[in-house]
Amino acid sequence: MPSSHDHSAAVLAVFVTEAWGIEQRVQLKTTTGILQGTLDLPNGASPCPVVVIIAGSGQTDRDGNQALMKNDSLKLLGQALAAKGIAALRYDKRGIAESASAATREEDLRFETYVADVVQWVTWLRQDPRYLRVGLIGHSEGSLIGMLAAKQAKVETFVSLAGGGRPAPALIREQVNTKLPPNLKARSNQILDELVAGRTVTDVPKDLAVLYRPSVQPYLISWFKYDPVREIAALEIPVLIVQGTTDLQVSVDDAKRLAGAKKDAQLRLIDGMNHVLKHATTPEEQQAAYTDPSLSIEARAVEEITTVMITEIRSGAEQPNRR
Predict the structure, then answer these.
(1) Cα–Cα distance measured from residue 235 to residue 135, given in angstroms and rounded to the nearest whole number
(2) The dihedral sign for the CA sequence 279, 67, 21, 102
(3) Pairing relation of β-strands 131-139 and 21-30?
(4) How would you write 85-153 as a 3-class SS string?
(5) pLDDT for 62-115, tens place per residue?
(6) CB count, 10 Å around CB of 322?
(7) Rounded to whole angstroms, how far apart are CA atoms 98 and 107?
(8) Per CATH, the architecture of 5-166+228-315 is what?
(9) Which pTM value belongs to this model?
(10) How do the domains of the chain map onto residue ranges?
């Protein structure tokens, strides 16, 4: 598995100044290609705290968008944090959007590859005197990536934003079993059992190939071995868990499960916030939230994250804490 990285990154000369702050393009060189990112920087003097925002599963880019689903949730989050004095790094994960060329063959991809990328971004940020402290914000599946990265990289805080509280196989069973006919449901469960046991499956029905095609199975096996409850419990840094009450993809119970595993974590439930961080209490509002980038994200979520980051800075006596 290609893992590693030569720890070189660059700030590009392309930047845009806005009312909320400055947008700066950055890139990170890895052994398999370049990852593209954006720094949302506060106006005014540095140093300041910085967070790495880790996008969720599928083809979600640094802005929080997928094809036919442009909502700009993560872009709006980064800009809102910059307006509060906190820099934010958003990036396209390898294989996605402008980082597509950094992808290895699907057979070679592992969950740990995404974790290693976050660690390298943090290593780069640590070398920049503009930043006092570094935090991680993992959205959706990015939450688990962030938990694992927080154990390897030197970060001061971790925020789980709409992060799942159960192992991936349990979520897949729940989502898939309601949509499949009985014969495919049984086969899906058998395949999942094999993958959880660390064994690949060759005879995948055509109707299940999008989920379990042989080329993606090594990645699934690497992902399935992690339990978010176990991973968050192992963190020794301040943790904030933010969850919307109208999220259709991750439940409040998931957030409570995470909080229960780490007794000193702060749990913040945002009334009426959905999975893409916007206010949505009706089916019509849910649809609009996923497809209308002009809709703002919930201000309280930004406030909760800001409070944790600023508190951590004060607790660190506003001194850089380098490796």
Answers:
(1) 13
(2) positive
(3) unpaired
(4) CCEEEEECCCCCHHHHHHCCCHHHCCHHHHHHHHHHHHHHHHCCCCEEEEEEEEECHHHHHHHHHHHHC
(5) 999 999 899 999 999 999 999 999 999 999 999 999 999 998 889 999 999 999
(6) 8
(7) 21
(8) 3-Layer(aba) Sandwich (3.40)
(9) 0.91
(10) 5-166+228-315, 168-225
